[in-house]
Amino acid sequence: MVTIKEIAELCGVSRGTVDRVLNHRGNVKAEKKELILKVAQEMNYTPNPAGRALAAQKMKPVVAIVMPSKGIGFFDAVIEAMEKAAKSYSMYGLQVEWYISKGYDVEVQCKQLSQLLGKVQAVILMPINDERVSTKIRHLTESGIFVITINNDIENSSRHCYVGTDYFNGGMTAGSLLQMINHGMLNIGITLGSLQILGHAQRLSGFRSALSHNPLAQIMAITEDQDDEMLSYEKNLEMLRKHPDINVIFAASSGGICGACRAIMTCGREKDITVIVFDTLPTTVEMMEKGLIQATIYQHPRRQGQIAMQIVFEYLVNGKKPERELNLLTNEIRIKENINTAL
Amino acid sequence: MVTIKEIAELCGVSRGTVDRVLNHRGNVKAEKKELILKVAQEMNYTPNPAGRALAAQKMKPVVAIVMPSKGIGFFDAVIEAMEKAAKSYSMYGLQVEWYISKGYDVEVQCKQLSQLLGKVQAVILMPINDERVSTKIRHLTESGIFVITINNDIENSSRHCYVGTDYFNGGMTAGSLLQMINHGMLNIGITLGSLQILGHAQRLSGFRSALSHNPLAQIMAITEDQDDEMLSYEKNLEMLRKHPDINVIFAASSGGICGACRAIMTCGREKDITVIVFDTLPTTVEMMEKGLIQATIYQHPRRQGQIAMQIVFEYLVNGKKPERELNLLTNEIRIKENINTAL
DNA sequence: TTGAAAGCGATACCAC
DNA sequence: GTGGTATCGCTTTCAA
């Protein structure tokens, strides 16, 4: 591995000069600069992360985590993984500020993002899919802040990258799986968090597309539960009573799955409804073990948090740009048998 | 974060002394030693990996990779991931020696392991489940070599840890899934690599256990294909011809899946046999897209390689013991829709 | 038994 | 514009 020192010797300059060139800090004569760049290129120079980390720890860069996810069980795992990663990066000077709020409120999110200007070097954001939010994101990126969207993406923004799943594919996988395990007539009731969350809308399209050629399948009703268990219980109860012929529940919600299951139990329909959901909250695992839920689509919550934090770390501390814009985790199918994941 | 320097100041000794205590290098008076250990404990000292890596890179530790997997497609991904990880660790001085051979031959594996004594500091091994191998492993660990089993474990050995899946669970998941997608009579033909590979035997038990309460299910025949596509084709063809009532193929093999599928096609049975397999080789993906294979159990080959290498790195370079003995990756269910994984 | 010092790679800052 | 130097945390070596 080539080091700055070696390059400096080869070029007959000091390490400081090489550093200035490699980090675009200016103040170097054009000819020297070009020589250094050429040599670095030829020798295939890559900075040693350990050296860099050691030197960088006085910089104390700050990352803000902005998630309107308070009270939604799925995100506990995401946040936990971020906390763990943050802890292991703390010795490199990386600092974290948390902005965890409750409810999908565009104004609140915009206000939170406004606060960050000048205070942080990076943001990890679960965005609400609204023009006003994407405008705010543009403000941030334009002033040099590194922005990652997590778990959900946003249209027409200038975020640097996205970490999460492909929601359309998630819906499609669920729809296709449903048809593998239930070969008969499918009268489907759907509950989802909010169509304002991009992912939920995409899930719905994916699910529809998987069913589109099945004449035995029809969607009877769709309800928005705001990812709130109480509301979900009420809305699903209402839906089940209004449509007693429903024999499938597709719960594409992040925070309303337990509520939907309780509604099914209230109606005494746990034996004859096929239920497919997302994620593996403790309550979901319980319902799977009971046989109420047949399958769930797992979205790697912990890896989402871990990867997002790692990308920020690599960028802020090691100066490494993310390898790809879309960091897509696979939609995994979990049934009773393989739900208890170890790693 | 506490540093050695701070501990040294607090204890009124030099950094060298603290280092000697913390790394059990002796030559420190008992009372000083105890004081230092106490202070380090109290202040919750953790060595800074960057500092350590920087200082340790002249040590050039060597890890050997021993896998009897040449020609088995599944392991390409495992090895690729190891190569990638090795490359990123090379700047910390970690060196790799590869011993990739063909065929499950106990003598060959023992000979390979014997060669390593005194030459390497760690071994990543896909073991053949035989007493002679576990004896060799004991020799290695007794002389201070760090041994990890990958992809398959071995009984009664003294390996430090295992990275791979829970095969019993994999078989059970497959068996359970089979009953979810096929509700009728199940006349099952099984092909697997070798009962000498612990994992394959465990898969079979898991699969059996999932079916044990289903009166409609029976195993018609089991064949060992030595993870060889040619052999698998022949054996499966023979099996299908001998048992024309087989309507399910459970391919628990690592390297005989394509062969089994070709046998099914040769018999013209691709429409009426339910096929469940393991892993996602390119040929497997093709067969899934064609509809010949209904589902596969994915075993995270890349993560297996990456994690094994990371554990070795942490141990050899950072001096960190592995967090757990069993590093179990989840058995994931993949169908046509979610087979193309991005990350 | 112990301390002091050099060195690993990168960076920041102060002199010139 | 530039070079020199201190620094980060840890290990190793040499001298006392």
UniProtKB/TrEMBL annotation, chains A, B:
Keyword Ribosomal protein (UniProt): no
Keywords: DNA-binding, Transcription, Transcription regulation
Protein name in the entry: Substrate-binding domain-containing protein
InterPro entries for the chain: HTH_LacI (IPR000843), Lambda_DNA-bd_dom_sf (IPR010982), Peripla_BP_I (IPR028082), SBP_2_dom (IPR025997)
Taxonomic lineage: Bacteria, Bacillati, Bacillota, Negativicutes, Selenomonadales
Organism of origin: Anaerovibrio slackiae
Boundaries of every HTH lacI-type domain copy: 2-56
CDD domains: HTH_LacI, PBP1_sugar_binding
A GO MF label: transcription cis-regulatory region binding
Keyword flag S-adenosyl-L-methionine: no
PANTHER family documented for this protein: LACI-RELATED TRANSCRIPTIONAL REPRESSOR, TRANSCRIPTIONAL REGULATORY PROTEIN
A Pfam family that the UniProt record links to this protein: LacI
